[in-house]
Design the sequence.
């Protein structure tokens, strides 16, 4: 009998959590940009590599991005972010340490999501750079930015 009571209690908890979930909203428009080939980051540290861009009309947008960094050399920190071209504002940034040495992954997908409330049409850029000068990590094909 106790297992039944426990199951009923769990169902009640799950049911109350599920009932708190807001209903889904319809998407009026979606914008998407994607790379089709692997690209090497610039040799100079901090220099940006623009991967993809999307032009968004004014309004409130959820912007989602991902890029996979690969490094067959010494460890390096790769930073990928969404930046508004017109203002230079960075809306979301995430990092990964990639390389062949201890404390790093050979490859790592860097991703993020943010909300942009735009008063005017704005071009959102997906950009990556790295912290060390010299042999550079690669951004694998398929880096993408989407807004909906």
Sequence:
């Amino acid at each position: 009998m106790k297992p039944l009571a426990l199951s009923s209690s769990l169902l009640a908890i799950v049911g109350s959590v599920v009932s708190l979930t807001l209903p889904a909203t319809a998407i009026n428009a979606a914008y998407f940009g994607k790379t089709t080939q692997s690209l090497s980051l610039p040799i100079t540290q901090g220099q940006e590599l623009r991967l993809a861009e999307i032009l968004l009309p004014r309004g409130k947008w959820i912007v989602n991005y991902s890029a996979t960094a690969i490094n067959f050399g010494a460890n390096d920190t790769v930073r990928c972010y969404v930046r508004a071209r017109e203002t230079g504002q960075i809306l979301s940034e995430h990092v990964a340490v990639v390389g062949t040495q201890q404390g790093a992954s050979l490859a790592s997908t860097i991703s993020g999501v943010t909300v942009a409330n735009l008063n005017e049409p704005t071009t959102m850029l997906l950009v990556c750079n790295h912290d060390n000068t010299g042999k550079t990590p690669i951004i694998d094909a398929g880096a993408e930015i989407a807004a909906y």
Remarks:
- The two ends are 49 Å apart (CA to CA).
- Confidence is low (pLDDT under 50) at residues 1-22.
- The first strand starts at residue 31 and ends at 34.
- The helical segments are 2-20.
